[in-house]
Amino acid sequence: MGEAIVITSGKGGVGKTTTSANIGTALALQGKKVCLVDTDIGLRNLDVVMGLENRIIYDLVDVVDGRCKIHQALVKDKRFDGLLYLLPAAQTVDKSAVKPEQMKKLMDELKQDYDYIIIDCPAGIEQGYKNAIAGANQAIVVTTPEVSAVRDADRIIGLLEKEKHMEAPKLIVNRIRNHMMKTGDMLDLDEITEHLSIGLIGIVADDDEVIRASNHGEPIALNPNSKASIAYRNIARRILGESIPLQPLEEVNKGVFGKLKKFFGVR
Amino acid sequence: MKKRQNVTIKGTKDGLVLRLDDSCSYEELKREIDQKLSANTMTQEERHLISVKLEVGNRYLTEDQREELKFLIRQRKNLVVDDIESNVLTREEADRLRTENEVVTVSKIIRSGQVLKVSGDILLIGDVNPGGTIMAGGNIFIMGTLKGVAHAGCFGNDQAVIVASSMKPSQVRISDTFNPAPDIVPENEKREMECAYIDEDRQIKIDRLQVLIELRPNLTRLEGGH
Q1: Chains A and B: how many Cβ contacts under 8 Å?
Q2: Is residue B209 part of a domain?
């Protein structure tokens, strides 16, 4: 039986879809069989971020309504040898087209065939959210170091904690700008984790490369040289149960001079 | 063999104490009280009222029986019952007393959008996050940080207080008064171990929790030793 992990946040625009795409990609890179499910019906874009938009034939609503079989709707990602699939959301209808019970049934079927199902949740706490969490047994809450995002994350965590079928949610702090955290213009990492008091599963620095990669339909996790990519790969390994320390936020001092400076404690 | 007395009378400086046996029948008891008191009034000349305390031991008296005994004793012109002491409580009474005086302990974080409400006092082991609300008919004691809204004495109890290990509320309400947080809070101000209460001007005041020892002595629930 596979694990169904919902990626949620409450607030929009904190990076749920990017996170879903990259965690899915990173898990596939680890050799796991992964299915990405976009539940943002009516406003789909996980397919765009993955660069699979052109190959969609059927979607989630078609499957739920019985117009096609699951395997017909799944879009295979050719970059991975049969390890990564996407179940796209419908674009022509809205969130009320699916019921939580139907989602649960669908997830239970997918769990038979996949190691991990990554569910991209829409923003908000209404129907779309309820659909997304119905079939999940784990949750990852994405937030950014902003008061409004943390507030919404708090609300979502409160709702998730009430769900008896789910494990305690884990936290990702996304889009960290180290220089702003240092000056106190952004919420401190400790402040966030203390406030939300759930387990931190990863931190991702704000990186222009992420946006560039998304626009090209190539998840950043495929690029081994980017800091954000390493962060996502680490999150995937933590999901697999490895214990990996958090990446230091400080820019690693480059070169011999930097090392010397560090040695003498000069900042 | 001399019959054991069902009613013994003792004089104290506060008045009379009637100790009533708890193993005889109620009718027997009534008869004996009547006898004893008639015998006694003969010798008593004082006209002022004497208060009487009844000790009934392990006997449960219904409300009607209590009234009956009081009436019986009041018939003696200068005697008045001011207390009936029994070792027995009904389950109902016990339950009512328990819920009234209970401090409900809750261990969780009250997150944004969540409301926790109890009718008595509440002891929260955890935080109240911004956007979260904690309400109690009595007092609120928070072992963590209060960052959201707290409403003590929400059924109209002005004596209720709010205590928090770290007091950074977005709003505190007690009874029907409320107090929004000041807009500018000095960054480094220590907000530890504080309490909120209604002062004489019906304004909510926040102070060190030690002031409650003077202001709200009723918070002490320690029984015995008196």
Answers
A1: 26
A2: yes
Q: Is residue B140 one of the residues assigned to a domain?
A: yes
Burial of A52 (0-12, 13-18, 19+ CB in 10 A): buried
0.90 surpassed by complex ipTM = no
Q: How many domains, in total, are found in chain B?
A: 2
Query: Do B188 and B114 share a domain, yes or no?
Result: yes
Which pLDDT score, from 0 to 100, does residue A124 have? 93
Q: Which residues in chain B touch residue A195, judged by CB atoms under 8 angstroms apart?
A: 127, 129
- Element housing B85 (H / E): strand B79-86
Percent helix, strand and coil across chain B, each rounded to 5?
25, 35, 40
CB count in 10 Å sphere of residue B101 = 11
The domain that holds B62 is classified in CATH as 3.30.750
Q: Report pLDDT for B1.
A: 47
Q: Residue B113's closest chain A neighbor by CA?
A: A155
Please check whether residue B24 lies inside any domain of the structure. Answer: yes
CATH code of A126's domain: 3.40.50.300
Q: How far is B110 from chain A (nearest CA, A)?
A: 8
pLDDT beneath 70, residues of chain B: 1-3, 40-47, 77, 100, 181-189, 222-226
pLDDT tens string B43-91? 555 567 788 888 888 888 888 888 888 888 887 767 888 888 888 888 8
Count: domains in chain A: 1
Contacts of A154 in chain B (CB under 8 A): 111-112, 129-131
CA distance A2 to A60: 19
- Sorted by sequence, the CB contacts under 8 Å of residue B225 that are 6+ apart come out as none
